[in-house]
Design brief:
single chain; 325 residues; alpha/beta; Nucleotidyltransferase, domain 5; 2 domains; five-stranded mixed sheet; globular; binds adenosine monophosphate; binds magnesium ion
C-alpha cells in the first residue's frame, strides 16, 4: 500500500510517502519569523497554501511514484491552528476527489508517538511528548489507545519557550534561540518550580522570567528558565516511569531537539536502568512521515479510511479521542 501523507497543524507544511510501512520521502517547509512575533494564523495558512503543491510534486518525483500508484491519502486533522488545518483539509479533499482516493484523518499527537514505534523500534514505552502545542506523558494501550499520565495545566513547554524568546527579542520558533543563549550563561537564577501531582504549569515561569529582562542577561534568563522547566518535566516523567514500570522512554515533539533536555533524560534513564530511545531529528518536529506511518498503523489494525465528503478538522481534539471520527 502506498500512502501520500500531509501535515500542517502548525508552522510546518510537510508531505511524505510511505510504502508498505516504509518512509520513502519526507519533505517539509516551515513558517518562521525574524521579528519577535508568534505564529500569525493567516500567515501560516498562506504559507501552507503556497508550499503544498510543490512539496507534493517533489515528494512524488523523489519517491519515483505517480499519483496513479497512490492507494490512500492521510492528513493531520487536528489538533492545531484552525486556519492551517483548513488549508490541509481543502488540499487533500480536492486530491481525493480528483484521484478517487479515500483518506485517513490522523490525530497529530498520536502520529508523533506511533512513529517512534516504527523508527526507534519502541515496543511499549513511556512517551514524553513536548512540542509547541502539547506537553504530555503518555503510554499506549495495545499500541492504539492513549492514556495520559500527566500534562501541562496551562501552556505547552514549546509555547513557553517561544513566548520567552519573543520577550527576549528573538524570532519564531524560539526554542533553539533559548537553547543557544543558555549555553553562554554564567549565573544560575532561582525561578518558580510548579509541579502539581503529575501535572505541570509553565505560564507563571514565563511571566517570572520575562520580568527579569531589564535586570539580568538574556543568557542567564534562558539558562535559569531551561533548568527549571526541564527539571519539572523530569520529575513527573520519573514518577510516571516508577509507577508504570516501563522499561523504555521516548522523547518526542519539537522540544525534544533540545540537547540539554536530552542530556537530562539520558542521565535519568541511566540511573533507572531503562532504555532511552532516540529518534532522528527529522521525526521529532512536525513531519508528514509520522502521519503516513500512523495511517499504515491504522490499516494494519483494520481501521477503514473515510470518503472525501467525510473529511473533517478538529482544532481541539484530545488524544484519548483520536479514534472518534
Ligand atoms: P513541533 O510543534 O513538534 O514541531 O515543535 C515546535 C516547538 O519546538 C516550538 O515551540 C519550538 O520552539 C520548539 N523547539 C524547536 N527546537 C528546539 C530546541 N532546540 N530547543 C527547545 N525547543 C525547541
Ligand atoms: Mg507537533
Amino acid at each position: 500500500m502506498n500512502i501520500l501523507a500531509f501535515e500542517g497543524t502548525a508552522h510546518t507544511a510537510s508531505v511524505a510517502i510511505v510504502k508498505k510501512g516504509k518512509i520513502v520521502t519526507n519533505l517539509k517547509h516551515s513558517y518562521t519569523t525574524q521579528q519577535p512575533t508568534g505564529m500569525v494564523p493567516r500567515e501560516v495558512a498562506e504559507h501552507h497554501a503556497s508550499h503544498l503543491k510543490d512539496l507534493t510534486l517533489q515528494a512524488l518525483k523523489q519517491a519515483n511514484v505517480s499519483m496513479r500508484e497512490i492507494d490512500v491519502l492521510a492528513y493531520s486533522a487536528g489538533p492545531g491552528l484552525g486556519a492551517a488545518l483548513q488549508v490541509i483539509n481543502s488540499f487533500v479533499t480536492a486530491l481525493s476527489i480528483k484521484h478517487n482516493l479515500l483518506l485517513y484523518p490522523i490525530h497529530h499527537s498520536f502520529a508523533h508517538l506511533i512513529v517512534a514505534n516504527y523508527i526507534a523500534k519502541a515496543k511499549d514505552p513511556l512517551y514524553i511528548y513536548v512540542s509547541g502545542g502539547n506537553t504530555q506523558l503518555i503510554m499506549l494501550k495495545d499500541n492504539l489507545h492513549p492514556v495520559v499520565y500527566g500534562e501541562t495545566e496551562d501552556i505547552a513547554l514549546g509555547n513557553a519557550l517561544d513566548k520567552l524568546a519573543r520577550e527576549l527579542g528573538y524570532g519564531f520558533p524560539g526554542g533553539k534561540h533559548i537553547e543557544d543563549a543558555a549555553k553562554k550563561a554564567d549565573k544560575f537564577i532561582e525561578m518558580p518550580y510548579t509541579v502539581k501531582g503529575m501535572d505541570l504549569s509553565y505560564a507563571g515561569l514565563v511571566t517570572f522570567a520575562s520580568k527579569l529582562k531589564d535586570k539580568e542577561t538574556k543568557e542567564n534568563i534562558a539558562y535559569g528558565f531551561q533548568e527549571h522547566a526541564f527539571a519539572m518535566l523530569m520529575e513527573v516523567a520519573e514518577r510516571a516511569l516508577a509507577y508504570t514500570e516501563k522499561e523504555e522512554v521516548v522523547l518526542t515533539g519539537g522540544v525534544a531537539l533540545n540537547s540539554r533536555l536530552q542530556e537530562m533524560l539520558k542521565s535519568m534513564a541511566e540511573e533507572r536502568g531503562i532504555k532511552y530511545l532516540k529518534l532522528e531529528p527529522q521525526y521529532l518536529g512536525d513531519n508528514a512521515a509520522m502521519i503516513g506511518v500512523a495511517a499504515w498503523h491504522f490499516h494494519l489494525h483494520g481501521i477503514e479510511p473515510l470518503k472525501s465528503e467525510e473529511a473533517f478538522t478538529k482544532p481541539r481534539w484530545r488524544i484519548e479521542k483520536h479514534l472518534e471520527w
